[in-house]
Amino acid sequence: MTRDPHLADDVVQDALIRAFLHLGSLEDTSRFLPWLYRIVINQANMLRRGGPYRQERPFTSIGAALDDGSLVDLGDLDSILFHFARQSRASS
Fold first, then answer.
1. How far apart are CA 21 and CA 44, in angstroms?
2. How far apart, in Å, are the Cα atoms of 16 and each of 19, 36, 73, 74?
């Protein structure tokens, strides 16, 4: 539904937190899996409507934005942070 494994991870994590917080509202424990599945679907649908992840982009999409000729190793967090710091200083 998200077409992005990182956003899918976020959706599932948020759904698990929501399920844990509302576990007391589950009346029939034999219906746990359908209940949890519905929570995951609702979280994914919220994402589609522009929920909390609307402005979020995975690091893999940054590569296309690097049109300034700089080399950034997307597998190295220090390289990514250095690039953004340098870009921030240049725009100030």
1. 18
2. 5, 8, 32, 28
CA distance 29 to 2: 29
pLDDT on residue 65: 53
What does the pLDDT read at residue 38? 94
How would you class 63 by CB atoms within 10 Å of its CB: exposed for 0-12, middle for 13-18, buried for 19 or more? exposed
pLDDT the model gives residue 91: 74
Global pTM? 0.53
Determine the Cα–Cα distance for residues 35 and 64; give it in Å rounded to an integer: 39
Positive or negative torsion for Cα 10, 11, 14, 16: negative
Average pLDDT over residues 7-11: 87
Amino acid identity at 85: A
